[in-house]
Design a protein that fits this description.
- This protein is an alpha/beta fold and about 150 residues long.
- It has 5 helices and 5 strands, in the order βααβαβαββα.
- The chain has a 5-stranded parallel sheet with strand order 2-1-3-4-5, sandwiched between helices.
- The longest helix is centred in the first third of the chain and has 15 residues.
- It starts with a strand and ends with a helix.
- The mean pLDDT is about 95.
- Bound molecules: 1,3,4-trihydroxy-5-OXO-cyclohexanecarboxylic acid.
- 1,3,4-trihydroxy-5-OXO-cyclohexanecarboxylic acid binds next to loops.
- 1,3,4-trihydroxy-5-OXO-cyclohexanecarboxylic acid (DQA) binds next to loops.
Amino acid sequence: MTRSILILNGPNLNLLGTRQPEVYGPTTLQDIQDMCSAKAAQLGISMVFRQSNHEGELVDALHAARGTHAGVILNAGAYTHTSVALMDAISSIMLPVIELHLSNIHAREAFRHKSYIAPVAIGQICGFGAAGYPLAMDALVSYLGDAE
Ligand code: DQA
């Protein structure tokens, strides 16, 4: 069976392309999804790409990933810095999760240095803009190895 991964995007990422392009670049979320589809084909995996502005929907999507996907790439947006609920969801689903950010959160405001996702993620990729998405896919596939 083809291995499947979930790429989950949080609040305001639907506005990429017009949202603070000096921070997040000119690429739209649709462009990123297209890039991830091409990368998935290259890696021989299938991929579901989602975005929600709602914390509870992100929690639900993480719960639903269990039994459906082999791992998750999560750009939780601002919920990264606030959400114990997302942290607990990740701890509960027993799936490898990679934390992803377009910007380098450690080089920005102090409140962005704190991540509730980092302690429960297998690793973090940030600061590479849209290119971080295919990098995270490589990292997840490499982490999953041959395990089912
Ligand atoms: C972000 C970084 C967060 O601090 C911010 O709230 C976002 C986007 C990123 O991809 O760089 O919404 O997750």
